[in-house]
Amino acid sequence: TAKQRGKAGFVRYVDGMGEPVLAHMQLGGELRRALDGGELRVLYQPILRLDDRRLVGVEALVRWHHPTRGVISPAEFIPAAERTGLIVPLGRFVLRETCRQAAKWLAEFGPDAPQRAAANVSARQLHDPDFVADVTAALADSGLPCERLVLEVTESAVLRGQQVSRTLYDLDRMGIRLALDDFGTGESSLSLLRAFPAAIVKLDKSFVDGVEIDDGQPAAVNARQAVARAVVQLAHTLGLDTVAEGIESAEQAAVLRELGYTVGQGYHLARPMTAESVSALLARQQSLTAADR
Ligand code: C2E
Ligand code: MG
Ligand code: MG
Ligand code: MG
């Protein structure tokens, strides 16, 4: 039988479609408790300039500190949160937390604060008729200026009709920046750039993996390099900023710089960290800047 009872009481039942429906339902119940009980925490991964390694932004990444299972990654519970609709209150929590923290950094570090703070937004949130109002409230309650907030959306989330399109244009009009996350992995990346008001393109990690490999062939033969180059050129032509995601080595950072990327994110540069660790990094950066003056 396909039934198994997990240690923490998760019931896994894989139906004919191979979909662990019950596991998701159980997870949903646990998630509700997690939300109410303060088990969700937000880490921030620095986004850095590739030349001088200055921090120019952060991306908020949620973690679930489960009482018995330890830290659970969003890849494991975001799908369940989307399915159960809990992504709406979860996303609202992350958004409010991100705005509050970014406003705090701004008050504390002024010109040395991260210029932008990004939160991931799922399709279900974009469909929620209250989403724009939630964003407006998060900004107003925190005092964070709109232009400091970035909302990251994926192609698949955006490719869903009128309501979503109206929401995105509303957010853009408010001065919020929209980033196309995991760019290049969807099916209509290029047409999307025309159809929605993106300000930032995040080159997906899958094109950064292997971008540095020199196989002795002309550069264009390295397909990832070719895509990475095309994306940055297109972005510049359209007046969009870029972020290269998932940089894991100095070699990758160097090649991406040569290709025209000025900003990147990845374990080689900085891992996702607590707000306190980001503050320590900002304090260090501030003292370096002060020494320069
Ligand atoms: P994402 O938005 O593309 O975020 C980047 C992911 O890549 C993060 O994984 C980050 O920790 C990881 N990463 C960064 N640099 C490197 C690297 O150099 N190497 C490798 N191997 N990985 C790297 P994480 O935190 O596990 O999040 C996974 C995904 O879950 C995110 O992908 C995003 O789609 C989703 N997610 C995370 N937090 C939220 C949230 O608050 N709301 C929603 N809707 N989705 C979220
Ligand atoms: Mg993201
Ligand atoms: Mg991404
Ligand atoms: Mg990604």
Automatic annotation (TrEMBL):
EAL domain span: 24-286
Domain of life, source organism: Bacteria
Protein name: Bifunctional diguanylate cyclase/phosphodiesterase
Originating organism: Dactylosporangium maewongense
Segment of the intact protein contained: 490 to 782 of 782
